[in-house]
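Predict both folds.
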Amino acid sequence: MTRQELIEQIKQKRSFLCVGLDTDPKKMPQCVFDLYDPIFEFNKAIIDATAPYCVAYKPNMAFYEAYGIKGIKAFIKTVNYLKEQHPHHFIIADAKRGDIGNTSAMYARTFFDEYDVHSLTVAPYMGEDSVKPFLEYEGKWVILLALTSNKGSADFQFIEDKNGERLFEKVILRSQQWGTPDNMMYVVGATQGKLFEDIRRVAPDHFLLVPGIGAQGGSLEEVCKYGMNKDCGLLVNSSRGIIYACNDDHFAEIAGNKARELQQEMSKQLDSFGI
C-alpha cells in the first residue's frame, strides 16, 4: 500500500483508526471456544464488525507467538483473511524486530516475503544496519519506535546530549537519512500529548502510529491538535477498548459499535482540519 493509497482510504472512510488485534484467549468470550480455531474466529468476527470504520489492523505478534505453532497459524490465517476479504486495509505486524544486519534481513524476509504484511514495527536501538534491510522491500513500510507511551520511556528516550537534543529526536532525525515519508513511519504514544509538537517539528510529513488511546489514557483530541498534518498523518490504534469491550455472544457487535464511535470522532477531527 502506497502513502497516497493510505491517505485516500482515510479520506474515504473519514477515519484514521487502526484496530489492534491483541488477541488473548484468556480474555476472549466463551462462545468462540466451540469453534475449530478460536483465535482466528475471534479475529475474523472482530474484523468483519469493525472493517467499515477503520483503515488498518495491527496484530501484536506476542499474542500469537505465545501459543506456538497454533498461534502463528492463527496469525497467518488472519493476515490472509484481511488480504482476501478486506484488501484495502493496511496491515501492521507489531513485532518490534531489530538486530544485526543479517538477522534483520531474515526478519524482513519473514514478514514481507512469507507473511506478506504491509508494515512492521522495528526497534532502532542498534542503528542503521539493523533497520536498512527492512527498507529494501518496495511497497513495504518500517514503523520505527520513536517516543513510546509506556512509563519506562523516560529511562532513555528523553536523555539529552550536550546540545539539548533528546534521544527520541535524534532517532527521528538520523533515521530520515535511511527512509522517507513513503516507506517509514514512527511510533509515538498517545500519552505524550503536547510533545507531538516536538515530533512534528522534526518529522512534519511522516505518518505516526499512535497507540495508547482509551485504556492507556491518551486523548484523541490532544493527539490531533498537536500531531495532525495536512494529510492527516496519523494512524491511531485502539486495542483493548474495542476488541474486549464485551465478553459475551455480542462481542463483535459491541466492538463494531466502539469502532464506529471512534470513527465518528475522527471524522469530526478531519473536518476541523479541512481534510
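Second protein follows, with its predicted C-alpha cells after the sequence.
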Amino acid sequence: MKLSQIMQDVDIVRQSCDFNMEISDICYDSRQAVKDCAFLAIRGFRTDGHLFIAEAARRGAAVVIAERTPEENVPYVLVRDSRRAMAQMAKNFFGRPDEELKLIGVTGTNGKTTVTYLIKHILESNGKKCGLIGTNDIYVGDRVLPAQRTTPESCELYKLLREMRDAGCGHVVMEVSSHALTLDRVYGLTFETAVFTNLSRDHLDFHEDMEHYLQAKAKLFEVCRSAVVNYDDPAGHKVIENKKCYKMTYSAKENSADLVAKNIQLKASKVEFEAVTTGEINHVALGIPGMFSVYNALAAIGCGMSLGISLSDAAICLRTCRGVKGRAEVVPTDTDYTVIIDYAHTPDGINSILKAVRGFAKGRVVALFGCGGDRDKTKRPLMGKAAADNADVCIVTSDNPRSEDPKAIIDDILPGVRDSKAQLHVIEDRREAIAFALKNARPNDVIVLMGKGHETYQEIKGKKLHMDEREIVAELLK
C-alpha cells in the first residue's frame, strides 16, 4: 500500500520522504521491522521508540514516523502524536475493518472478562458470529489465540479486527482497559455498545488518583452509540454524564433503573433472579455463584437488548453459559473441601469473591493471596484487609513479584491483616502456600486461591515461570 494511503487523516507536522513509496507493513517494535515497512517511534513506559530508529532502519524500514526529527539520515514523517498516528495508520493499512463490524466495548475494574464471555455467548446463541478480545484469550472466528494484554496496541488491534471480519464475524466484543483508553489504543473506533461494570481502587501506579482513573474509563462513552451502565455504582452515573449516546442502566437495588434484578437467590453453584424491564419480566439462571454474577448477567443482558436481542432470548441463553476460566472456577479435587481459583487482584475483587463464598460455605473460608510487584503499592494493605475481613484463615504469599522483592511486597500487605480475627499465615513460596492450605483443610472448608486466575505462569525477576494452580492442586492431592 502507498504511504499516502496509509497516512490518510493522520495529523502530519512535516514530511521528508516520498509519499508514493510502497509500504509492506507497519510496526512500533524495531525488532519486528522488515524490508520496506513503516516504523513508528512511540514513547513507552520504560523506553522511547525514538532510540531504536537506527535499528529499525538497519532491518529495512523504509520510513520512520516520529514526534521529533530523527538524528539518523532516514526518510521520515513528523506527526503531532505518534500513538494516534499509529492507530489511524493501522486503521487505513488494514482496510478500515472496524467500519464493517459492530464493536462492543466493556470497561470497569472488575467483571470485564466474564461480561465479555457472557455477551459473546448471547450473540452466538442468537446466530451472530462474534470475535472476542480480552484478558484470557482472543477468539478470531473458530481460532483461539493467546492474549498478551487486556487491550492490544492499535497495530495489533486493527490487524485482529481485519482477521475477524475476514473470518466472517459481524460483531466483536472486547475488554477496554483504562490504559488502552489513556494510551489511544482504541483511537478511531466507534463502539455500537459500551458497557460499564464498576469502579474500585486499581492501577493508581498509572493513573494519578481515582478521579483520573474514572476519567479514563469515561472516554469510552464518548465514542459509543449506546451505553449500558451499572446504576448501583456511583461511577456509573458519572461515566455517562453529559454523554450523547443512548443510555440503559441496570441495578440489583433501584427500581428506577431500566433493567432490575428482583427475587435474587444466591446458591453454591449459581445465581437466580427475575430480570424486570418495562412491560417484561423473565427468570434468569447463571451457573456462576456470587452476587457479582447477578451484576455480570445484568450487564450482558442489557448489552444484548441494546443490540436488538430480547430480554427473554438473552435470559434463555445465560442458562447454558459455562463459567470463565479463573473466575470463581471450582477445581475438581474429590475431597470433602472445595478449592476455587479466582483472578481477584483488587480490594473490591477480593471482597466480592470472598463474600460470595461466605454465602454458601459450610466450613471455614480460607483466603490465599498475594499482590503483584511493580504495581500500585497503596492497594496492598487494602487487599490484606479485604481478605482478613471476609475470611477465617488468611494465607499471605506471592503473586507475580516481577522485579520486586517478594518479602517486601508481603510486608506491605501485612498491616491490613494483623489486627483482624482471621488466622494469619505467611508463606512466601506460592506452591508451598497452596500445599499448606490443602494439608490443613477441614471438611466443608472452601479454599480460595486468588490473584492468578487464568494465568499459568509466575513472573519473577523478568522471567515467566510455568505455574498453573490447577496442576499444582492435582499434583499435591495425588
